[in-house]
Amino acid sequence: MMYSIYHFWKHLIHNRASFSKIANLSEFQFDETMLSCVNKGIFPDLAIKLNKDSSVFTGGELIELKDSKSYNVASFNSTVPTGKKNIRKIISSEHGTIFLQMQKAGDDVFSLEERDVYYLIRGRKSIYQKICLVHGSFFETVNIKELISKSFSQVLDETLVGSDIPADIKETLGSIFSEHFLFSRVRSVENASVKLRFRVLTEVKPEGNILNSKMYPDILDNSINLVVPYHTDEEKVDIVSKVDLVLGERGVQGIKSFSIKHPFNGWFAVFQTSL
Length: 275
Prior knowledge:
By secondary structure, the protein is of the alpha+beta class.
């Protein structure tokens, strides 16, 4: 049996009637035979199993669930959205929950270190909803370290207005605070009766809001969409061939395919069907 984000999407569209019946995405009956881990409250919410034969599909994609009661993508509270993650940075210990789940599922966990990240996004508006299984590069148009560093530099600029601190010192301070893990740790101060945890809350701009009808009118009400990036015609052909292979000749007949252009990050192939 093969596993991939394409097989996961096939399961979603075959069971799409369920989306109108569930209050939260976590209630969806995902096919756990294709999943190597299922979590709540930690990244990733879901992970696809790795394939023994990875010549066509590697598997191993990481999935985060994002549910919203509007056509705005829900805030990212735990991790800054990204297109790829190194599994070693997620699994800090070989005795950790995620590692043990993946190992029990039969994965050689570190055989594929760089994993593609997808976000299963649902937005609701009145009697309508939009569902997108979208690659994380739709949101990561600036490298995470650069994003955090430049954001912190803005704080420094606002705080140090009129100061004589050299620009290179400001740049150094900004680069020091470019790592996300520095904010996520609990800080304990001597004689303090409370601990502090600084968290990076990520909110999506209109340009990155795939549910925004003005920015992305082709993402229709009551539709379910797979959204995958491509940079060359060859990459697009490969994506289409994988969809065709997974869905089969009859399955693709009800699928509309087109491309959308992200204003900051190029082209994405979209495969859409109605809910």
